[in-house]
Amino acid sequence: MPNNPAGTMTPRRPAGTLYRGREGMWSWVLHRITGVAIFFFLLVHVLDTAMVRVAPGAYNAVIDTYKNPIMGLGETALVAAIVFHAFNGIRIILIDLWSKGAKYQRVMFWIVIGLWVVTMLGFAPRHLINVFSEVGH
Amino acid sequence: MATTIDSPRAPHTVRRSRGVNWEKWGWIYMRASGVVLLILIFGHLFVNLWLGDGIKAIDFAFVGGKWSDPFWQVWDCVMLWLAMIHGGNGMRTIVNDYATRALTRKILLAGILVAVVAEIVLGTLVIFTFDPCPAGSPADLLPSFCPVN
What we know:
A: mainly alpha, 3 helical TM bundles of succinate and fumarate reductases, B: 3 helical TM bundles of succinate and fumarate reductases, 4 helices, Succinate dehydrogenase subunit C (chain A), membrane (chain A), metal ion binding (chain A), transmembrane (chain A)
């Protein structure tokens, strides 16, 4: 880095842009995409659960349309989105409130990815076994 | 009227409109509700999808068994309110970022508000007016604690 006295030239890269480029930006993009996806799922999920108020058979009929491999894979993707959004949300809180948060935002992103992988290894095989063991029943 | 410009060394004063700073409280709400939602939703997913037979076990009797316990009624109701407002506020932020025409923005924001309020009202009513043993229903669809019709 050339030694520039403050204000003598415009830096090539703006300083302090946690949200431009690399991990800081892509975590932000993923946070938005997963957030929107979860919101629209939630709208549907409240409506399908509301069927318990209509009749037991009505609720079971709706839930049975979810019990197939395509929806099972969709549920796995949904949980993947929720787990990323949750862990990255903690990272955002730490960036905003922890005095060293901005300094460590990049390493915290990879910690989020690591925790996400571990959580999904605990969830996905078990869920997919439940989904695919019901095929044909 | 001539515009007056402060002298360069004038102390900086932040101009504030009086009243509640809603954007600040929204910012705080996203973080506070986010932490609580992490616990509530991970618990929700763990009990409904991971324990026992997971998704295979979910049917009317499963929901009836859970919601005959006030603990799960309160859990799900708090989760509903926190999540719908958290999600609605997040969607509001995104609409404000990308909707450039004032009319488009107004329509989208109104749509989000209507959806969030309708779902909170519907979900809360369902949780607290729910009958796990509705009369005249086939016994094999009901929780095992229901009296046989």
